[in-house]
Design a protein that fits this description.
The protein has about 500 residues and is mostly helical. It contains 21 helices and 2 strands. The chain has one domain. Strand 1 and strand 2 form a beta hairpin.
Length: about 500
């Protein structure tokens, strides 16, 4: 970590972390905009940078959006990010009581504490997981990738079936181009631009940039009204935070554990942590009516996720959520090779990213607290002015990767596809993860079979492989059971609704 903080402490890296965190705060505060979209918009600006400064800029945005989402949740009753939806319950209730400033103070402190606890766990566990991962074979890596995709499908928004459909679509897109082993054309349909496969930047920009703008077009012209015009800034006392240690700790632990599961993200961790703290509290009846723990818990969980998501990203090459999926794509675009050997091959970048995560949380606290008034002013404006910039920068990002206009056309197609999928409640990150992990899984499955003379039992030869296969089968059977159960429960109501 001394190495990590040394490389992060250069003026350029600190400046990029600061700018990224400030932009993330702003994006998180605006309902409808997201961290993946903000990172995608900044992606073309990082092509000329070294990998570490580029990733630090993205980490700043990632961390900043976590706190920014609570501003609109508390002041507008509209969460800026999905993970801030839980904060609405007690944060907005406190604002109605004239305690909007104090609610923002609890949100800021909870975010800082949760983020730092998540960072400590990431620093502690990263060497251990990396040491285990480095001993993985091709079969292990393939199973980890498959397990990650199944877990993403199982825990993503919507049903597992929709998640699996998204994953399979991503895997199909990943097969376009030349076969990685024998260079055979696959699904290019005579289009020479597809021989090298679907461009990462085009897919990321389309699904996370263009699709967001298309889905927000109906909300153009909307101007939100805050519950109060004046916000008196107020941080809770140190003793108050110590007294509420249980809310901070439970929220942080849920965030770390859920964040470490590939593809799950912060949305589920906040609700799980909130329910746990409320059930353990002696003041259950006050939750939802402006209880401080109802703000601290989800915000601590929301920010602790950042430490949890870094573990699978840096040790296994598996993203924990949509934002880290974009970071994973950015690593490939910058010529890095994320995966089980990443920490050993790029120790400066890996430790620099972890050190940057710590610094970004400090910046998040300072910016979020000292610059709250400008953000509040922005919340009252029509945010549609941002859309043209998003579209222009998205197109630049798609074009710059190859200096070819063809990826721009792909980005528009993926944007329309992403918009239609979002309208039908399909989780978009599952598609992107399928595109990113598809080549990794394919190469390692075929390599494992080649090394074992096409013996499929190679995927069951060690106990870690057996455990992963059992988890995969268990998750699929669990979804089938829930489907059969809901079908049985729904059948009587359908019959009853029919005329005699």
């Amino acid at each position: 970590m001394i190495l990590g903080f040394t490389v992060v402490s250069t003026p350029l890296n600190l400046f990029l972390l600061f700018i990224g965190t400030a932009l993330g705060n702003l994006v998180g505060a605006l309902p409808g905009l997201s961290s993946p979209m903000a990172i995608i918009v900044l992606l073309p600006l990082t092509y000329s940078m070294e990998p570490l400064p580029a990733l630090l800029l993205m980490i700043g945005v990632y961390v900043g959006t976590k706190l920014g989402g609570s501003y609109s949740a508390i002041l507008l009753r509209t969460p800026g990010t999905p993970a801030a939806a839980c904060t609405v319950l007690d944060g907005y209730a406190m604002a109605l009581q004239g305690k909007a400033g104090l609610a923002l103070g609890y949100s800021t402190m909870g975010s800082l504490i949760g983020g730092l606890i998540g960072w400590v766990v990431a620093v502690t566990c990263l060497p251990l997981i990396a040491a285990i991962a480095i001993k993985s074979s091709a079969a292990d890596i393939a199973l980890v990738g498959i397990l990650g995709l199944v877990m993403v499908s199982a825990f993503a928004r919507g049903t597992m079936l929709k998640g699996l459909i998204g994953v399979v679509l991503g895997l199909l897109i990943a097969t376009v181009g030349l076969d990685p082993l024998d260079a055979t054309d696959r699904f290019t349909f005579g289009v020479t631009e597809l021989a090298g496969g679907v461009d990462f930047a085009a897919a990321l920009v389309g699904f996370f940039g263009v699709a967001v703008v298309l889905s927000d077009i109906p909300r153009m012209g909307e101007i939100t009204r805050m519950i109060t015009k004046t916000v008196k800034q107020e941080l809770p006392s140190l003793w108050e935070m110590v007294r509420r240690w249980e809310a901070n700790l439970i929220g942080s632990l849920y965030g770390i554990l859920v964040g470490a599961v590939p593809g799950v993200g912060a949305e589920s961790s906040t609700w799980l942590a909130y329910a746990t703290v409320r059930n353990r509290s002696k003041e259950k009846e006050l939750f939802g009516r402006g209880h401080p723990d109802g703000v601290l818990t989800p915000e601590a969980s929301n920010n602790a996720v950042t430490g949890g998501t870094m573990l699978p990203l840096l040790t296994l090459g598996l993203p924990g959520d949509g934002s880290t999926a974009v970071m994973l794509g950015a690593m490939y675009l910058h010529g890095l090779n994320p995966g089980v050997t990443f920490v050993r091959e790029y120790p400066t970048i890996a430790n620099g990213m972890i050190a940057g995560l710590f610094v970004a949380h400090i910046f998040m606290f300072l910016i979020g607290w000292l610059a709250i008034k400008p953000y509040i002013a922005v919340l009252q404006k029509d945010r549609s002015w941002i859309f043209p910039f998003v579209l222009v920068l998205s197109c630049i990002g798609a074009y710059t990767g190859t200096n070819n206009v063809f990826p721009v056309y792909l980005a528009v197609i993926f944007g329309v596809l992403g918009y239609l999928m979002e309208a039908c409640n399909f989780p978009i990150p599952t598609v992107v993860l399928g595109i990113i992990l598809g080549p990794i899984i394919e190469v390692n499955v075929r390599l494992a079979l080649s090394l074992s003379n096409n013996d499929w039992t190679t995927f069951l030869r060690t106990w870690p492989r057996k455990v992963m296969v059992l988890i995969i089968i268990g998750l699929v059977l669990r979804e089938i059971w829930h489907g059969v159960k809901s079908l049985r429960e729904g059948r009587p109501s359908v019959i009853a609704a029919q005329p005699d």
